[in-house]
C-alpha cells in the first residue's frame, strides 16, 4: 500500500473517531448543588430542607448522549434512601424518580464514557460520594456563611469556598429582584480522576443556565453567574407554619 493510501486510511479512521467521540469528550465534571429555599422561591414549592442538596453531576460536554440507555430505579435501590436526603426532588414528592431519571438521561448517559462512571449505579453512587466528601454545608458554615437576612458579597462566599477547597467554584444567582440577587447554585468541579479543579465556564454555558426544563415548567428565569458588585441574599428557611 502506498504512503498516501495509508495516510488516507488513517485519516478516515481519525475522522470517524473524532466524529463519533466528540460529543463525549468531556474533561471536567461539575458537581452542582442547589439551595432548596431559592429553588422553591422560583418554583413556588415548599421545603423545610436547610442544606445545600445535589442538583447533578454534569460532564462539561455532551447532553442526552444515549437515549436507549434508560433509567432503571431498581438498579439504585440501595442508594434511594440517601438520594432522598441528599438529592431530593423538590417538585415531585417521593416515590417519584422523575428528577433522577432526567439527570441520568441528560448527563449520566454522557458521563458513562469514563470507566469509573460506566453504569447507572456507579454514576449516582459517585455523585453522592463526591457530595459527602466535599461537605459544602459545613465548609460554608465554618466560614460563617450562613443563611440570613443580612447580605453577603460574592467575594465573601467565593473566598470561603476557595479557602476550604483551594479551587474556584462557579456561583449562580437568580436576579428576580432589582438591586439584589439570590444565591441559588454552587458548582464545584473535578477532573476525570476526581481531583478538584477550578471551574471554568464551559463553551455550552447557555445550556447550563437552565438545564432542567422538566424542573422549570413554572416559567422561571433560571440561574446565571452572580454579579460581583451586587449584594447577595442567602435566604434562610421560611418560618414554619
Ligand atoms: C443537613 O445536613 C446535616 C449534615 O450533613 C444532616 O445532619 C441533617 O440531617 C441535614 N438536614 C436535612 C433537613 O436534610
Ligand atoms: C447506549 O446504551 C445501550 C443500552 O445500555 C448500549 O447497549 C449501547 O452500547 C449504548 N451506545 C453507546 C454508543 O454507548
Ligand atoms: C431494571 O433492573 C432490574 C434489576 O436488574 C431488572 O430486573 C429489570 O428488568 C430492569 N427493568 C427494565 C425496564 O429494564
Ligand atoms: C471547621 O474548621 C475547623 C478548623 O479547620 C475544624 O477543626 C472543624 O472540624 C470544622 N468544622 C466543621 C463543622 O467543618
UniProtKB/TrEMBL annotation:
GO CC, alphabetical: endoplasmic reticulum lumen; extracellular region; lysosomal lumen
Main location: endoplasmic reticulum
Tagged with keyword Secreted: yes
Signal sequence annotation: 1-17
The keyword rRNA processing belongs to this UniProt entry's keyword annotation: no
Active-site residue list: 55, 103, 107
Catalyzed chemical reaction(s): an adenylyl-uridine-RNA = a 3'-end 2',3'-cyclophospho-AMP-RNA + a 5'-end dephospho-uridine-RNA; a guanylyl-uridine-RNA = a 3'-end 2',3'-cyclophospho-GMP-RNA + a 5'-end dephospho-uridine-RNA
InterPro entries (alphabetical): Ribonuclease_T2_eukaryotic, RNase_T2-like, RNase_T2-like_sf, RNase_T2_His_AS_1, RNase_T2_His_AS_2
A GO MF term: hydrolase activity
Name by which UniProt lists this protein: Uncharacterized protein
Keywords of the record: Disulfide bond, Endonuclease, Endoplasmic reticulum, Glycoprotein, Hydrolase, Lyase, Lysosome, Nuclease, Secreted, Signal
Family: Belongs to the RNase T2 family.
Gene Ontology terms: biological process: RNA catabolic process
Highest taxon listed in the record's lineage: Eukaryota
Compartments it resides in: Endoplasmic reticulum lumen; Lysosome lumen; Secreted
